[in-house]
Protein backbone atom coordinates (compact mmCIF):
# COMPACT_ATOMS: atom_id res chain seq x y z
CA UNK A 1 0.00 0.00 0.00
CA UNK A 2 1.47 3.33 -1.09
CA UNK A 3 0.35 5.26 1.98
CA UNK A 4 1.90 2.77 4.40
CA UNK A 5 5.17 2.73 2.46
CA UNK A 6 5.42 6.52 2.50
CA UNK A 7 4.57 6.72 6.19
CA UNK A 8 7.14 4.09 7.11
CA UNK A 9 9.78 5.91 5.09
CA UNK A 10 8.88 9.18 6.79
CA UNK A 11 9.13 7.66 10.26
CA UNK A 12 12.44 6.01 9.40
CA UNK A 13 13.80 9.34 8.20
CA UNK A 14 12.86 11.31 11.33
CA UNK A 15 14.24 8.52 13.51
CA UNK A 16 17.57 8.51 11.71
CA UNK A 17 17.55 12.31 11.58
CA UNK A 18 17.21 12.37 15.36
CA UNK A 19 20.09 9.92 15.72
CA UNK A 20 22.30 12.11 13.53
CA UNK A 21 21.35 15.20 15.55
CA UNK A 22 22.21 13.58 18.87
CA UNK A 23 25.48 12.21 17.52
CA UNK A 24 26.56 15.71 16.51
CA UNK A 25 25.16 17.78 19.37
CA UNK A 26 28.66 18.22 20.81
CA UNK A 27 30.04 19.11 17.40
CA UNK A 28 27.40 21.53 16.17
CA UNK A 29 29.87 24.31 15.17
CA UNK A 30 27.03 26.72 14.39
CA UNK A 31 27.28 29.40 11.74
CA UNK A 32 24.86 32.18 10.85
CA UNK A 33 22.99 32.24 7.54
CA UNK A 34 22.15 35.50 5.70
CA UNK A 35 18.69 35.56 7.29
CA UNK A 36 20.36 35.36 10.73
CA UNK A 37 19.15 31.82 11.40
CA UNK A 38 21.56 29.23 12.77
CA UNK A 39 23.12 26.48 10.67
CA UNK A 40 24.95 23.45 12.06
CA UNK A 41 26.71 20.42 10.67
CA UNK A 42 23.74 18.32 11.82
CA UNK A 43 21.35 20.36 9.63
CA UNK A 44 23.45 19.59 6.57
CA UNK A 45 23.98 15.90 7.34
CA UNK A 46 20.29 15.27 8.07
CA UNK A 47 19.36 17.14 4.89
CA UNK A 48 21.76 15.02 2.83
CA UNK A 49 20.43 11.81 4.39
CA UNK A 50 16.78 12.66 3.69
CA UNK A 51 17.53 13.79 0.15
CA UNK A 52 19.31 10.48 -0.52
CA UNK A 53 16.47 8.49 1.07
CA UNK A 54 13.86 10.16 -1.13
CA UNK A 55 15.70 9.67 -4.42
CA UNK A 56 13.52 6.68 -5.47
CA UNK A 57 10.36 8.78 -5.01
CA UNK A 58 11.80 11.90 -6.64
CA UNK A 59 12.94 9.83 -9.64
CA UNK A 60 9.29 8.97 -10.41
CA UNK A 61 8.64 12.68 -11.20
CA UNK A 62 5.55 12.52 -8.99
CA UNK A 63 7.38 13.75 -5.91
CA UNK A 64 9.02 17.12 -5.24
CA UNK A 65 11.30 17.90 -2.30
CA UNK A 66 11.45 21.32 -0.65
CA UNK A 67 14.30 21.23 1.86
CA UNK A 68 15.33 24.21 3.97
CA UNK A 69 19.00 23.54 3.21
CA UNK A 70 18.53 23.27 -0.57
CA UNK A 71 20.36 26.14 -2.26
CA UNK A 72 17.89 26.01 -5.19
CA UNK A 73 14.74 26.63 -3.17
CA UNK A 74 13.65 29.55 -5.32
CA UNK A 75 13.47 27.27 -8.38
CA UNK A 76 10.31 25.63 -7.02
CA UNK A 77 8.62 28.91 -6.13
CA UNK A 78 6.21 28.64 -9.04
CA UNK A 79 2.58 27.63 -8.69
CA UNK A 80 2.52 25.77 -12.00
CA UNK A 81 5.56 23.70 -11.00
CA UNK A 82 4.06 22.89 -7.62
CA UNK A 83 0.74 21.83 -9.11
CA UNK A 84 2.49 19.47 -11.51
CA UNK A 85 3.55 17.25 -8.59
CA UNK A 86 0.93 15.13 -6.75
CA UNK A 87 3.24 14.91 -3.73
CA UNK A 88 5.46 17.59 -2.20
CA UNK A 89 7.82 16.71 0.65
CA UNK A 90 8.78 19.63 2.89
CA UNK A 91 11.74 19.11 5.21
CA UNK A 92 13.23 21.00 8.13
CA UNK A 93 16.28 18.95 9.16
CA UNK A 94 16.37 20.63 12.57
CA UNK A 95 13.68 23.06 13.65
CA UNK A 96 14.77 24.99 16.71
CA UNK A 97 18.42 24.99 15.65
CA UNK A 98 19.30 27.67 18.18
CA UNK A 99 18.09 25.39 20.97
CA UNK A 100 19.98 22.46 19.43
CA UNK A 101 23.18 24.49 19.23
CA UNK A 102 22.80 25.26 22.93
CA UNK A 103 22.08 21.59 23.78
CA UNK A 104 18.51 22.32 24.82
CA UNK A 105 15.75 19.76 24.12
CA UNK A 106 13.23 21.99 22.33
CA UNK A 107 14.18 21.06 18.76
CA UNK A 108 12.83 18.53 16.33
CA UNK A 109 13.27 16.86 12.96
CA UNK A 110 10.25 17.78 10.84
CA UNK A 111 8.95 16.24 7.60
CA UNK A 112 5.64 17.08 5.94
CA UNK A 113 4.11 15.44 2.88
CA UNK A 114 1.56 17.50 0.97
CA UNK A 115 -0.90 15.83 -1.38
CA UNK A 116 -2.29 18.12 -4.07
CA UNK A 117 -0.67 20.95 -2.06
CA UNK A 118 -2.80 20.20 1.01
CA UNK A 119 -1.55 18.83 4.36
CA UNK A 120 -1.64 15.04 4.33
CA UNK A 121 1.12 13.26 6.27
CA UNK A 122 3.60 14.63 8.76
CA UNK A 123 6.13 13.58 11.37
CA UNK A 124 7.96 15.61 14.00
CA UNK A 125 10.47 13.92 16.26
CA UNK A 126 12.01 15.48 19.38
CA UNK A 127 15.09 13.26 19.88
CA UNK A 128 16.19 14.58 23.28
CA UNK A 129 12.65 14.14 24.64
CA UNK A 130 12.03 10.83 22.81
CA UNK A 131 8.65 12.21 21.70
CA UNK A 132 7.13 11.69 18.27
CA UNK A 133 4.11 13.34 16.68
CA UNK A 134 2.88 11.97 13.37
CA UNK A 135 -0.10 11.88 11.00
CA UNK A 136 -0.64 8.85 8.77
CA UNK A 137 -2.82 10.74 6.29
CA UNK A 138 -5.98 10.23 8.30
CA UNK A 139 -5.27 10.05 12.04
CA UNK A 140 -2.53 11.56 14.18
CA UNK A 141 -0.65 10.13 17.15
CA UNK A 142 1.56 11.27 20.01
CA UNK A 143 4.21 8.74 21.01
CA UNK A 144 6.22 8.79 24.23
CA UNK A 145 9.49 6.85 24.41
CA UNK A 146 9.40 6.82 20.61
CA UNK A 147 11.50 4.26 18.74
CA UNK A 148 12.11 2.20 21.87
CA UNK A 149 10.64 -0.99 23.25
CA UNK A 150 8.57 1.14 25.64
CA UNK A 151 6.93 3.28 22.92
CA UNK A 152 3.37 4.26 23.84
CA UNK A 153 1.16 5.86 21.19
CA UNK A 154 -1.97 7.87 21.91
CA UNK A 155 -4.32 9.01 19.17
CA UNK A 156 -4.64 12.78 18.98
CA UNK A 157 -8.23 13.96 19.19
CA UNK A 158 -9.75 17.44 18.88
CA UNK A 159 -8.97 19.77 21.76
CA UNK A 160 -10.60 23.09 22.57
CA UNK A 161 -8.76 24.34 25.60
CA UNK A 162 -10.57 26.96 27.65
CA UNK A 163 -8.20 29.89 28.09
CA UNK A 164 -7.46 30.93 31.66
CA UNK A 165 -4.64 32.80 33.36
CA UNK A 166 -2.95 29.39 33.74
CA UNK A 167 -2.91 28.79 29.97
CA UNK A 168 0.16 29.17 27.78
CA UNK A 169 0.14 30.75 24.34
CA UNK A 170 3.24 30.46 22.15
CA UNK A 171 4.41 33.68 20.52
CA UNK A 172 6.78 34.36 17.63
CA UNK A 173 10.45 34.81 18.52
CA UNK A 174 10.32 38.62 18.42
CA UNK A 175 6.72 38.94 19.59
CA UNK A 176 7.32 41.56 22.26
CA UNK A 177 9.24 43.77 19.85
CA UNK A 178 6.12 44.45 17.79
CA UNK A 179 3.12 43.43 19.91
CA UNK A 180 1.65 43.88 23.35
CA UNK A 181 -0.09 41.20 25.45
CA UNK A 182 -2.14 41.29 28.62
CA UNK A 183 -0.69 38.66 30.96
CA UNK A 184 -3.98 38.61 32.85
CA UNK A 185 -5.47 36.80 29.84
CA UNK A 186 -2.80 34.08 29.83
CA UNK A 187 0.98 33.75 29.57
CA UNK A 188 2.97 34.08 26.36
CA UNK A 189 5.93 31.71 25.99
CA UNK A 190 8.67 32.16 23.39
CA UNK A 191 10.10 28.73 22.60
CA UNK A 192 12.25 29.67 19.57
CA UNK A 193 10.95 26.51 17.89
CA UNK A 194 8.03 26.30 15.47
CA UNK A 195 7.55 22.57 16.05
CA UNK A 196 7.08 23.24 19.76
CA UNK A 197 4.67 26.08 19.06
CA UNK A 198 2.56 23.95 16.73
CA UNK A 199 2.80 20.37 18.03
CA UNK A 200 2.49 20.99 21.76
CA UNK A 201 -0.96 22.64 21.61
CA UNK A 202 -2.16 19.51 19.76
CA UNK A 203 -1.75 17.56 23.02
CA UNK A 204 -2.97 20.32 25.34
CA UNK A 205 0.40 21.89 26.11
CA UNK A 206 -0.79 25.37 25.30
CA UNK A 207 -3.90 26.95 23.81
CA UNK A 208 -2.32 27.93 20.50
CA UNK A 209 0.40 29.97 18.86
CA UNK A 210 1.15 33.10 16.86
CA UNK A 211 3.69 32.65 14.10
CA UNK A 212 5.18 33.95 10.90
CA UNK A 213 7.41 31.29 9.44
CA UNK A 214 8.72 29.46 6.41
CA UNK A 215 6.86 26.59 4.78
CA UNK A 216 9.25 24.00 6.27
CA UNK A 217 8.61 25.32 9.78
CA UNK A 218 4.96 24.23 9.75
CA UNK A 219 4.54 21.57 7.04
CA UNK A 220 5.30 18.59 9.29
CA UNK A 221 3.09 19.83 12.12
CA UNK A 222 0.23 20.98 9.88
CA UNK A 223 -1.78 17.73 9.53
CA UNK A 224 -1.17 16.94 13.21
CA UNK A 225 -2.68 20.26 14.24
CA UNK A 226 -5.68 19.61 12.04
CA UNK A 227 -6.31 16.29 13.78
CA UNK A 228 -6.44 18.22 17.05
CA UNK A 229 -9.06 20.59 15.63
CA UNK A 230 -6.56 23.44 15.55
CA UNK A 231 -6.49 25.55 12.41
CA UNK A 232 -4.09 28.17 11.09
CA UNK A 233 -5.89 31.43 10.39
CA UNK A 234 -4.52 34.66 8.99
CA UNK A 235 -4.07 37.28 11.70
CA UNK A 236 -5.09 39.96 9.18
CA UNK A 237 -8.04 38.37 7.39
CA UNK A 238 -9.02 35.30 9.44
CA UNK A 239 -8.75 33.16 6.30
CA UNK A 240 -7.83 29.52 6.85
CA UNK A 241 -4.48 28.26 5.63
CA UNK A 242 -5.59 25.03 3.99
CA UNK A 243 -3.53 24.83 0.79
CA UNK A 244 -0.14 25.98 -0.41
CA UNK A 245 -0.19 28.87 -2.86
CA UNK A 246 2.87 30.91 -3.75
CA UNK A 247 0.86 34.11 -3.28
CA UNK A 248 0.88 33.46 0.48
CA UNK A 249 4.68 33.73 0.62
CA UNK A 250 7.16 36.53 0.07
CA UNK A 251 9.16 34.72 -2.60
CA UNK A 252 12.19 36.99 -2.76
CA UNK A 253 15.84 36.13 -2.15
CA UNK A 254 16.53 34.74 1.31
CA UNK A 255 12.86 35.27 2.20
CA UNK A 256 11.57 32.82 -0.41
CA UNK A 257 8.92 30.58 1.19
CA UNK A 258 8.44 32.99 4.11
CA UNK A 259 4.78 33.66 4.98
CA UNK A 260 3.63 37.18 4.14
CA UNK A 261 1.21 37.27 7.06
CA UNK A 262 1.20 36.19 10.68
CA UNK A 263 -1.05 33.26 11.57
CA UNK A 264 -2.87 32.21 14.70
CA UNK A 265 -3.09 28.51 15.50
CA UNK A 266 -6.12 27.85 17.68
CA UNK A 267 -9.53 26.27 17.92
CA UNK A 268 -12.29 28.10 16.07
CA UNK A 269 -13.79 29.30 19.36
CA UNK A 270 -10.54 30.71 20.67
CA UNK A 271 -9.46 32.51 17.49
CA UNK A 272 -11.36 35.77 18.11
CA UNK A 273 -10.42 35.73 21.81
CA UNK A 274 -6.72 35.39 21.03
CA UNK A 275 -6.78 37.85 18.14
CA UNK A 276 -8.29 40.45 20.44
CA UNK A 277 -5.28 40.16 22.75
CA UNK A 278 -2.62 40.66 20.06
CA UNK A 279 -2.18 44.42 19.89
CA UNK A 280 0.49 46.01 17.67
CA UNK A 281 2.68 48.50 19.51
CA UNK A 282 2.20 52.10 18.48
Describe the structure using short key phrases.
282 residues, 16 strands, alpha+beta, globular, single chain
Task: Describe the 3D structure.
- The chain is α+β, with helices and mostly antiparallel strands and 282 residues long.
- 27% of the residues lie in helices and 26% in strands.
- It is built from 10 helices and 16 strands.
- The protein has helices at residues 2-23, 41-53, 55-58, 79-83, 97-101, 175-178, 194-199, 215-218, 222-227, 270-275; strands spanning 31-32, 38-39, 63-67, 87-95, 108-115, 118-126, 131-136, 140-144, 152-155, 168-170, 179-180, 187-189, 208-211, 231-234, 263-266, 279-280.
- Strands 3-4-5-6-7-8-9 form a 7-stranded mixed β-sheet. Strands 12-10-13-15-14 form a 5-stranded mixed β-sheet.
- Strand 6 (118-126) and strand 7 (131-136) form a beta hairpin.
- Helix 1 runs antiparallel to helix 2.
- The longest helix has 22 residues, at 2-23.
- The protein starts with a helix and ends with a strand.
- The model has no long low-confidence stretch (mean pLDDT 94).
Amino acid sequence: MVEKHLLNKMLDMVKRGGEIALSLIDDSAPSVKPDQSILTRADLEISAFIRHSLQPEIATTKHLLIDEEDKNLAHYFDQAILESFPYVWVVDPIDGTRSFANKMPMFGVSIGLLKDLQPWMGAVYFPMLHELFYCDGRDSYFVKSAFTGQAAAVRIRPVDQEITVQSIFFGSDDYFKDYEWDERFCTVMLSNSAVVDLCWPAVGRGCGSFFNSNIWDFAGSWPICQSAGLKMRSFTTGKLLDRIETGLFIGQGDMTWRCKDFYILSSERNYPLIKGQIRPKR
